[in-house]
Amino acid sequence: MKVTVVGAGAVGASCAEYIAIKDFASEVVLLDIKEGYAEGKAMDLMQTASLNSFDTKITGTTNDYSKTANSDIAVITSGIPRKPGMTREELIGINAGIVKEVATNLLKHSPDAIIIVVSNPMDTMTYLVHKATDLPKNRIIGMGGALDSARFKYRLAEAMEAPISDIDGMVIGGHSDTGMVPLIRHATRNSVKVSEFLSDDRMQEVVEATKVGGATLTKLLGTSAWYAPGAAVSALVQAIACDQKKMFPCSVLLAGEYGLDDICIGVPVILGRNGIEQIVEIELNDKEKAKMQESAAGVSKTNGLLDV
Ligand SMILES: NC(=O)c1ccc[n+]([C@@H]2O[C@H](COP(=O)([O-])OP(=O)(O)OC[C@H]3O[C@@H](n4cnc5c(N)ncnc54)[C@H](O)[C@@H]3O)[C@@H](O)[C@H]2O)c1
Ligand SMILES: O=C(O)C[C@H](O)C(=O)O
After folding, report:
1. Active-site position among 109, 130, 175, 186
2. Contact at 8 Å (CB) between 84 and 204?
3. Where do the Lactate/malate dehydrogenase C-terminal domain residues begin and end (predicted)?
4. Which of 41, 119, 170, 222 is most buried (most C-beta within 10 Å)?
């Protein structure tokens, strides 16, 4: 199993590290445009191999796509991250050009790869990869909901003073400060609805803290987060590589599901060796449906800025 990660920055390197530590891939290739950067990150990571007991071979390359040839999975993390006070949508101007070029280069050398899009604004970048490559929709997956759901569970556990392993919950919708739809009505602690433990006000606080999870970290760090994003990407890569048939909310091209069409947005999917093996349509109430429509309108507005 060969995995390429384009962008050896904070998220790309973190994702490569988690993939290696889980030891399911034979090879991870890091590619970056900055001279020597991916090679340096790869060497540093390889020097953790004996300490962390993994056999995954990590190599780095400066923009030489021939080194990525025949990758099974390719992750796109190249592009700029936001700074405090910015929205993800403001990154579109620079990141659209980078993501389009990277996806095209990747597919020249790995025509059968499954692509995971991470660069922001992620839902729009995922849509752009569809438009630029025309790949079957099971092979283009945007990562956002897996991360947002992990943050939702963190906030729920914090509010309930419960261990995170007790919590289950999911965030669907767009990966943006206003567009996320944390499904609080469906969230549970060991199968018991969280409303049994939390007041309406406290649940609303959890929802709001989840939606601005990325912005909160960006303010604290001066740039956007990388550990949980890297872990979330590695979980998707593992689900595909190991044919796990796990369910994650991912940004995928919809054709009528959830009443939406020609848009990439976060919905639950089953991930396996073919990428997206199924889009899962769960029952939403009227309020949740309205939030999903509102979220989709925001993503469509950003998609409208693309030159495709
Ligand atoms: N979807 C999500 O949940 C999520 C989570 C975290 C970050 N992100 C996004 O991921 C992106 C990367 O974030 P980061 O913190 O790793 O940024 P970073 O600046 O640390 O790393 C980005 C890397 O991309 C490289 N790069 C730029 N243009 C390139 C090109 N044409 N080809 C190859 N490499 C190129 C840069 O040299 C840099 O090393 C940002 O757009 C950020 O907003 C998304
Ligand atoms: O917040 C960001 O800009 C990066 C990423 O989308 C995140 O949610 O951490």
Report:
1. 175
2. no
3. 147-297
4. 119
